[in-house]
Structures are given as C-alpha cells and as structure tokens.
C-alpha cells in the first residue's frame, strides 16, 4: 500500500492542498468561535459555517454525494432544529452592546457565566492534551502518505449509490427502522401530557 | 494530497468539540459540540476511504449512516432537553445535579434542583430520582 | 433368644425409649409416661433374666468390630462382657431406674419439662447399662461421657434457679477435670496392654502364661484414678456432688446415689488387676478413701439441707467401696455398691416425699414443725429402715456389706492379702471404724430432727410459716435452695395432700432389699470371685459397737439440746452443733474446699479471662475498628468527588482515557521514543 512513493512533499503544495488548508483553517476558526462565543444564537450560526466548511472539504476529497448530504442534513435540518431548541428553551440572549457601554463588563461576565460552566479550564487542559496527543500520533503515522485524487472520483452519487445498495442494503434498511424509532421517541417525549400538567 | 491534512484537521475539530462538550453550560451548546465531534470523525472516514480506494466504500457508507444517526440523535436529544426544561425551568447542564452525594446522612433537598417538580419526597441517597424527574412524571 | 442378645437389648431399649420420648414429647404427651417407664422396666426385667441365665458362672463374651484405629491390634470393638459383677450391677441399675421412673411420674407430674426429663433419665439408664456390660474401654468411655452429659442436664433441670445452673456447670466441669486424665490413662493402658478389651487386659495381667507386666503401672493407675475420683466424687474432686442436689430428688436418687457415682467404683472393680499392680496406687486410693470417708461423714453431720446430708453420706459410703478396692477386694466393694444403691435410692426417694410433705429441705425447719412422721407414714417407716441400713445396724443390708469391707481391710492390715500394702489395710480399717461412728451419728441426727421434732402445738400453717423465716443463721448458703428446689410450694395452704400412690409403693419396694439384701453374703461369693463376704467377729463387734455409741451419743445430745431449746425458743435442737463443737462451722461449709478451689483455680482463670478480654477489646479490636474507621474516612473523601456535575465526570473520564492512550502510544513506540 505504498501509494506515497514519490509524492511531492510538504514544501511544494498542489493547488488542491492550498485550498484544503485554507478552508480547513476557516472551518477550524468557525468551530472555535462556536464553542467559545457568549451568544448562543451566534454559536449556532457559526456552527453552520463550520459544517459548511467540512462540506467543502468533502468536495475537495472528491466525495460529492456526502458533501451534499452534509449540506442538506446538517446545515439544513440539524442547525434549524438546534435553533428551534434554543428558542423553545428561552436561551438567554445577550443584548447587542459595544465596548464603550458602561455596563459592558457586567453584561460580559453575565454572558460568560451563562454560556460556560465552571470547569472551563479543566476542559481546556483536557482538550489541549488530547489535541497534542492526537496530532502528534497522526502526523507521526501519516507523514508520508499520499492520496491520489486524480485517479477517479471516489464519491460521486453513482459510486456511492452502487456501494450503498449493493453491499450495505441491510444496514441501510436497519437504519430506517432506527430513524422511525427516533421519530416516534421524539414525538412521545415532547408531547404534552393531558391532565393539568405543565 | 497529503493524508496528514484531513487527518490533522479532523483531530483538531474533534478536540474543539471535546472542549465544547466539557466547557459549555447550555445543553444545546453541548449538543452542537457533539455535532462537531461527529463531523471530525466523518471527515476522517471520508479521507481514509478516498485514500484506500476501498471497493466497498465502507468509509463513505459509514459516514452516511453517522449523519443519519446524528440527525436522529439531535432529534431525541432536543426532545429530552425540552422536557427537562419544561420540568425544571432550566437547561443548564451543571444545575442538573440530583445524582450528587448528599451533604449529610439526612440529606438536604437537592440544592441545585430546587424546582417545583419535587412534589414527591425525593430521597437524595436513592438511585431513584435521576437527572430527569421527567421520567417520574411520565411513568 | 440367647443370653447375649438379651444383654445387648438391655441398653438398647432405654435408648430407644429416650429417642421416642424426645420425639413424641410435644406431639403426643399421652405417650410420654409409658415411653419413660416401659422400656426401662422391660430392660430391668431383661437384666434380671440375663442375671439368672448367667447365674454366676463363667463370663459370657461377645464382640463385633466397631471401627479400626489404624493399629490392627488395637481395634475398637462393640464387646459385651457378662459376668457376675456385671449382671448384678445391671440388675441394680435396672431396678433403681425403674423405681425412679415410676416415682418421677408422681413426683414431677405437673412439671412442664417432664418429657425431656424422662427421656434424659432413659438415656442415662442406657448409658449406664452400656458401661456395665461393655468389655471395651472406648465403648465404656462413650457410656461414661453420656452419663456425664445427662447428669449435667438433669442437675440443671430447674435451670430457672441460679443454684441449679451453677451446680450443673460445676458437676460437668469437675467431672471433666477427672475425665481428661482418665482418657489419657485408657490410651496408655491400651497401648501397653495391646488391646482395648477389658477382659483381655485382665486375663493377660493375671495369668502366669502371658507374663504381661505393665511398664508404668503407677502412672496408668493414678491417671485412671483421677477419672474415677471425678465420677465417683472422691476427694479432692468430690465437691460437685453436694451441689448437684439442686436437681430433682429422683435424679439425685438415681444418678447421684445409686448408679452413676457407682460407675467409678465398678470400673476399678473391673480393672482391679491394673490397680493391684501398683502398691502406690493402692495406698493413694486408701488415703483418698479415708479422707473422703471421714471428712464427708463429718460434713454430713453439720448439714442442714436433708439432701445435702444424704449427698455427703453418699460420698462417705462411696469411699467405703473405694477402700474395699484399695485392699483389693472387689467382691466386698461391689457388695457394698449393691446394698448402698438400694438403701441410698430409698433414702433419697423418701427424702423427696418428706420434702413434699414438709415443703422445705431444711432439717431445722422440719424439727421445728414436727409431726412429719404422721403426715408421711410410709416415708417415716421406709426411711427408718434405710437409715438403720446406712448406720450398719444388724441385720440390715448395710451391716453385712460394710462388714465385708471392714473384714477385707482387716485381712489386708494383718498381711493376709497377698500383694496389698499393709498400710492401705490399716488406713482403711481405722477410717472405716471412725466413719462407722460418724455414720451412725449423722443417721441418728437426721432421723431425730426429721421425725422426732417438737410436737406441733400451734396451728400448722402459722408454725411452718414462722419456721420458714427462721432458717438458722449458721447455714445461710443453703437457705436459697431450700425454697427453690421444692417443686410445690403451695401445699401448706391446702393442708396435707396425699402423696401419689406410685411414690409410696416404690418406697416399700426399695425397702425390701434395704432390709434383707444383707443375707446376700451367703450367695454372692458364687457370683463374684469366690472370696467370703461373711462378717468376721472382731470387726462386727467393733463396728456395731462404735455405731451404737455414735447413735446413743447423738440421742443423748439431742435430748439435751431439745430440753435446752424448749427453754430458749431461739436456739435449735440440732445435736450436730454440740457434737462437732468448733468444727461445725467448717464442716457445714464442706471444709472450705470450694473456697480453696476459688482461690487456686477460679480466680486465676477469671484473671486470665479478663486479660484475654482486655487484649481482645483493646488490642485486637483496635485494628478492626481502625480498619473500619479508615474505610469510612476514605469513603468520605471519595464521596466528595460525587458532585453530580456530569461534565466533571466526563472530564475525568476523558483525562483518564487520554492518559491510557498516551501510555499505550509510548509503550507501542518503545519506551516513549525519547
């Protein structure tokens, strides 16, 4: 499996690689803002950006079908669902305010307290340690591995469909049952009781 | 393309999601972070699938399944969150602390969950109440 | 059926009766009395048939192997040995046990624990038959120990009273103190003689052909003697017997007078050649007998409780038997055993009737009350017979048997007996004559106080009520038993109830051998070793003379004290006080032997127990408690981590898995790749 033989190396990136890295950086930035912003609705919108970025990365990896599915399901439905959730749970909304406002510090502290829990620093430490470990290991393992993207399109709708319905039919059908169960479950859970309850 | 690019990006995305899960207070924000982690995994799957040229396209098929399951998960998760919010008046994850060890042998009423749901006397030592009195109400 | 089958049935029947009685006791109370009396009675009849068939001829033996011991020569066998001694003692046991069972149906008729009582008496009877017939030392030991445990249970029959509890424990512990050396002695004897069969040991020791000589006869004999002293209540292990009178009176009659305490004597009689092989053992036995004889008789003279008087009298009479064995005359010993078994059982049973009638155990109170002879005429007459037998007045049974003992001692003292130390003969003879005097004295005192007390001038109820409060100060220790051991305290209120007919019939049945058994000296030598048991002139005259002197002296003193008491109502008409003088105080307390035991044994043991308790509580438990406290502290520390915050848990979980992952990576790349 030595596809890496004679690859160009990191110092002479191809065009796809440049685009990939740039989009990757944007995606990462959007993700970071998602998990750090004080405004909950902003977090959802930044999540759209991050998921869209991932969809672009799928395209760059020639997995078209998955890219469109990503856009449709994640960006289209999941984020909408999340926004509905935020709305229904009356998530606190930080008022639009500038740094010049005298109550800026107070509002900011309140928003931070609302958004982030007490063990933020523990979480940061764990996440950084995990990142360091994973990146080290991944880089160490795949330093010289090369993906040949020019050979053929790996993820067109046709290819994916053939694979899905030829080899993965049974899991696919099972998945439909799971989705049905999730649907029924969600309805049952969110249905309001009769009889004077909240 | 170097495999290292998507791999490292996936690792970093995963860790960002990890941070979000551990640090965010609002349950919906936690769910968003979970989505980020799932996407990191998906990216890994796709990248390796393209690299290996797998005849079965296992990576892409699995990605599709993960996306579908994630959609189901977000649906159920939001339903649960709504229920908790309805019963407790809050969806802050660090205030749902009924499982904590009580202070003394008598046990106080759950400080963090001083809610209107404690109509029945909840014993803090017992495994019964759990994080969602919703289960109790709907049972 | 063959004689041996009948002999085997004799112990089995009461045993089955005991088992059935225990099983049926609760579910079918109506069967308890037949189950108690019939097996014992049938066993007694069978014992008589066995005795008649055996007829004093050659010993009959039968054996079946019970279990191997790892040494082929030393099998444990279920062996029976039916000779003249065994059959006669078995007849005694059967007769007394049957009488006691019959008597108990009346005496304990209202007792709620009668079923278990009757079953235990049956079990005891079976064990005693086993001891009597057994030819194997280990099987004999089994019966010996069953008797001990039955005695423990029966002495503690009235376990509600502290006196009975203490007495049963004391009886058990003291006899066990003797049984441990006894067991060692049995094992030593068997390993030297090469068999557990008593008949084989005796044959090998006595026959010229085998020429077996024990290497350590003195050691073995003294070890066995310890067990005998415990069971037969000889000095210094005798102190349990007077206390054991806390049990029901029939039990005292059966176990602590007629049978169990005789087992030790019977055992020595069976193994006499072993003891005779050691002159030291014989002298020790003679000394033991002499001390017990005279000391117990003195103590009997000072007791106030009628049952304790009889208990000390039992000690003294058992010592006569031991004395006979010390001069190597087992015929005389067993003769006295049989006669004593009959009249002492009668004495105890009659005393039970007296206690029923008088409502008290105390002789002093009986003397003050008076008139008991009129209220219990059967007990009066039979007890008079038995006391005459006890005092060895001719022609009652005790005279002939005691004369046989004294004659044997005289033979030994003048060196006529081969192999018996002259010293042993003299010791037994002198102590026997002294004890004859004392025996007559305490028998006369008992009779005078119990039956010839002050006539009841005042109304009976008032008098006895006053008397019950007036238990004399000299004997405070016996006062509690007085009321507790009497089973029916309410009888005074209803006047004098008739004793159940079965009780008085038994008394008369037992009075016959007390009166006439002495003539057995004509026939008994055929059943025994053949030595003459006839009284000799010198000792007869001497012993009867001193007995008469003792009786008359007591009577004279009693006249004096009665006259004195009539003038001074505060004093008592007890001739023992005057006769013993300053010795009375010590004799009443059993010569302070219990105090000595307390100082020598009980206090150190209690101190050791306190030390152990201290070590256990303060040292051992400290570790245990420390472990508990440590876990509790650890638990409290760990509990603080249970904050209920899911994110904290998840963070810890992820950090942990991260550490594991790093460790795995480092391990995979080989020592961290540093």
From TrEMBL, chain A:
The chain crosses the membrane at residues 18-36, 43-61, 67-89, 121-142, 168-189. Gene3D superfamilies: NADH-ubiquinone/plastoquinone oxidoreductase chain 6, subunit NuoJ. It catalyses: a quinone + NADH + 5 H(+)(in) = a quinol + NAD(+) + 4 H(+)(out). It comes from the Bacteria. It holds the Pfam family Oxidored_q3. Its EC number is 7.1.1.-. Its main location: membrane. The keyword NADP does not apply. It is a multi-pass membrane protein. It is found in: Cell membrane. One of its GO terms (molecular function) is NADH dehydrogenase (quinone) (non-electrogenic) activity. Keywords: Cell membrane, Membrane, NAD, Oxidoreductase, Quinone, Transmembrane, Transmembrane helix. PANTHER family: NADH-UBIQUINONE OXIDOREDUCTASE CHAIN 6. Belongs to the complex I subunit 6 family. NDH-1 shuttles electrons from NADH, via FMN and iron-sulfur (Fe-S) centers, to quinones in the respiratory chain. Couples the redox reaction to proton translocation (for every two electrons transferred, four hydrogen ions are translocated across the cytoplasmic membrane), and thus conserves the redox energy in a proton gradient. This is NADH-quinone oxidoreductase subunit J. It comes from Streptomyces iconiensis.
Automatic annotation (TrEMBL), chain B:
It is a multi-pass membrane protein. Its EC number is 7.1.1.-. InterPro entries: NADH_UbQ_OxRdtase_chain4L/K, NUOK/Mnh_C1-like. It catalyses: a quinone + NADH + 5 H(+)(in) = a quinol + NAD(+) + 4 H(+)(out). Keywords: Cell membrane, Membrane, NAD, Oxidoreductase, Quinone, Translocase, Transmembrane, Transmembrane helix, Transport. It is found in: Cell membrane; Membrane. It comes from Streptomyces iconiensis. Its main location: membrane. Residues 95-139 are annotated as: Disordered. This is NADH-quinone oxidoreductase subunit K. Pfam families: Oxidored_q2. The keyword Translocase applies. The keyword Nucleus does not apply. GO terms for molecular function: NADH dehydrogenase (quinone) (non-electrogenic) activity. Belongs to the complex I subunit 4L family. NDH-1 shuttles electrons from NADH, via FMN and iron-sulfur (Fe-S) centers, to quinones in the respiratory chain. The immediate electron acceptor for the enzyme in this species is believed to be a menaquinone. Couples the redox reaction to proton translocation (for every two electrons transferred, four hydrogen ions are translocated across the cytoplasmic membrane), and thus conserves the redox energy in a proton gradient. The gene is nuoK.
TrEMBL record, chain C:
InterPro entries: NADHpl_OxRdtase_5_subgr, ND/Mrp_TM, NU5C-like, Proton_antipo_N. Its EC number is 1.6.5.-. It is a multi-pass membrane protein. Residues 73-117 form the NADH-Ubiquinone oxidoreductase (complex I) chain 5 N-terminal domain. The keyword Aminoacyl-tRNA synthetase does not apply. Residues 134-409 form the NADH:quinone oxidoreductase/Mrp antiporter transmembrane domain. It is found in: Endomembrane system; Membrane. One of its GO terms (molecular function) is oxidoreductase activity. Residues 467-496 are annotated as: Disordered. The chain crosses the membrane at residues 6-24, 31-52, 84-103, 115-132, 138-159, 180-199, 219-237, 249-269, 275-302, 309-328, 334-358, 379-400, 420-444, 501-524, 536-558, 649-668. Keywords: Membrane, Oxidoreductase, Transmembrane, Transmembrane helix. NCBIfam families: NDH_I_L. This is NADH-quinone oxidoreductase subunit L.
């Amino acid at each position: 499996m030595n596809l890496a033989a004679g690859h160009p190396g990191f110092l002479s990136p191809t065009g796809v690689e440049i685009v990939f890295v740039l989009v990757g950086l944007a995606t990462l930035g959007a993700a970071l803002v998602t998990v750090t912003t004080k405004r909950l609705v902003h977090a959802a919108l930044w999540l759209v950006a991050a998921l869209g970025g991932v969809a672009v990365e799928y395209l760059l990896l020639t997995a078209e079908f998955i890219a469109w599915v990503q856009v449709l399901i994640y960006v289209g439905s999941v984020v909408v669902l999340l926004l509905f959730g935020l709305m229904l749970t009356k998530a606190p909304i930080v008022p639009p305010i500038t740094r010049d406002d005298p109550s800026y510090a107070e509002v900011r502290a309140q928003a931070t307290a609302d958004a982030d829990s007490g063990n933020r620093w523990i979480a940061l430490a764990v996440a950084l340690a995990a990142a360091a470990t994973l990146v080290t290991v991944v880089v160490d393992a795949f330093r010289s591995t090369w993906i040949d993207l020019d050979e053929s399109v790996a993820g067109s709708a046709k290819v994916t469909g053939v694979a899905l319905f030829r080899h993965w039919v049974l899991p696919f059908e099972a998945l439909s049952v799971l989705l049905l169960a999730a649907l029924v479950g969600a309805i049952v859970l969110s249905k309001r009781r009769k009889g004077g309850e909240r | 393309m170097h495999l290292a690019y998507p791999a490292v990006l996936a690792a970093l995305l995963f860790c960002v999601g990890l941070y979000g899960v551990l640090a965010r207070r609002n349950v919906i924000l936690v769910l968003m972070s979970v989505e980020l982690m799932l996407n990191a995994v998906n990216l890994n799957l796709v990248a390796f699938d393209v690299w290996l040229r797998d005849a079965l396209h296992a990576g892409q098929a699995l990605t599709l399944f993960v996306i579908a399951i994630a959609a189901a998960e977000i649906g159920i998760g939001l339903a649960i969150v709504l229920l908790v919010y309805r019963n407790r008046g809050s969806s802050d994850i660090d205030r749902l602390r009924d499982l904590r060890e009580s202070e003394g042998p008598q046990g106080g009423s759950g400080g963090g969950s001083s809610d209107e749901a404690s109509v029945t006397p909840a014993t803090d030592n017992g495994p019964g109440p759990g994080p969602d009195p919703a289960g109790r109400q709907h049972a | 059926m063959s004689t041996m089958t009948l002999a085997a049935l004799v112990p089995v029947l009461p045993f089955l009766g005991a088992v059935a009685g225990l099983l049926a006791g609760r579910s079918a109370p109506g069967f308890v009395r037949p189950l108690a009396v019939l097996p014992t009675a049938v066993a007694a009849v069978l014992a008589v048939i066995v005795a008649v068939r055996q007829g004093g001829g050659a010993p009959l033996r039968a054996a079946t192997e019970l279990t191997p011991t790892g040494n082929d020569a030393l099998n444990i066998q279920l062996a029976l040995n039916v000779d003249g001694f065994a059959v006669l003692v078995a007849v005694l046991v059967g007769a007394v046990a049957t009488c006691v069972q019959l008597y108990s149906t009346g005496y304990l008729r209202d007792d709620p624990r009668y079923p278990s009582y009757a079953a235990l008496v049956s079990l005891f009877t079976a064990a005693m038959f086993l001891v009597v017939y057994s030819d194997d030392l280990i099987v004999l030991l089994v019966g010996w120990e069953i008797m001990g445990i039955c005695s423990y249970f029966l002495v503690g029959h009235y376990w509600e009273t502290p006196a009975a509890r203490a007495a049963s424990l004391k009886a058990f512990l003291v006899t066990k103190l003797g049984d441990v050396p006894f067991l060692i002695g049995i094992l030593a004897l068997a390993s030297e003689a090469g068999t557990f069969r008593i008949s084989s040991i005796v044959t090998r020791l006595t026959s010229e052909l085998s020429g077996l000589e024990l290497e350590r006869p003195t050691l073995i004999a003294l070890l066995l003697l310890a067990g005998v002293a415990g069971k037969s209540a000889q000095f210094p292990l005798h102190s349990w017997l007077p206390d054991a009178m806390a049990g029901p009176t029939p039990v005292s009659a059966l176990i602590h007078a007629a049978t169990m305490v005789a087992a030790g004597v019977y055992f020595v009689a069976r193994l006499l050649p072993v003891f005779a092989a050691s002159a030291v053992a014989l002298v020790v036995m003679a000394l033991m007998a002499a001390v017990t004889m005279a000391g117990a008789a003195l103590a009997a003279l000072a007791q106030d409780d009628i049952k304790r008087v009889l208990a000390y009298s039992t000690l003294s009479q058992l010592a006569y038997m031991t004395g006979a064995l010390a001069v190597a005359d087992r015929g005389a010993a067993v003769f006295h055993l049989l006669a004593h078994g009959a009249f002492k059982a009668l004495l105890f049973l009659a005393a039970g009737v007296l206690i029923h009638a008088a409502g008290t155990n105390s002789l002093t109170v009986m003397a003050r009350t008076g008139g008991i002879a009129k209220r219990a005429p059967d007990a009066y007459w039979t007890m008079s017979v038995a006391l005459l037998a006890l005092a060895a007045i001719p022609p009652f049974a005790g005279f002939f048997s005691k004369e046989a003992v004294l004659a044997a001692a005289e033979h030994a003292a003048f060196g006529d007996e081969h192999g018996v130390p002259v010293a042993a003969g003299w010791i037994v003879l002198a102590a026997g004559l002294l004890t004859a005097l004392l025996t007559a004295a305490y028998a006369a005192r008992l009779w005078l106080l119990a039956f010839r007390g002050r006539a009841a001038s005042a109304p009976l109820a008032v008098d006895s009520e006053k008397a019950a409060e007036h238990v004399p100060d000299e004997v405070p220790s016996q006062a509690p038993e007085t009321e507790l051991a009497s089973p029916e305290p309410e009888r005074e209120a209803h006047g004098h109830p008739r004793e159940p007919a079965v009780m008085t019939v038994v008394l008369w049945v037992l009075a016959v051998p007390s009166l006439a058994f002495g003539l057995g000296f004509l026939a008994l030598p055929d059943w025994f070793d053949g030595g003459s048991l006839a009284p000799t002139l010198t000792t007869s005259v001497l012993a009867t003379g001193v007995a008469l002197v003792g009786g008359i002296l007591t009577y004279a003193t009693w006249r004096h004290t009665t006259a004195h008491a009539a003038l001074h109502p505060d004093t008592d008409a007890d001739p023992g006080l005057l006769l013993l003088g300053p010795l009375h105080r010590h004799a009443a307390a059993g010569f302070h032997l219990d105090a000595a035991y307390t100082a020598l044994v009980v206090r150190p043991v209690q101190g050791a127990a306190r030390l152990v308790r201290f070590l256990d509580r303060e040292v051992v438990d400290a570790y245990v408690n420390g472990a508990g406290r440590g876990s509790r502290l650890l638990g409290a520390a760990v509990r603080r981590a249970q904050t209920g915050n899911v994110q904290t848990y998840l963070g810890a979980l992820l950090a942990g898995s991260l550490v594991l992952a790093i460790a795995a990576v480092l391990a995979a790349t080989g020592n961290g790749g540093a």
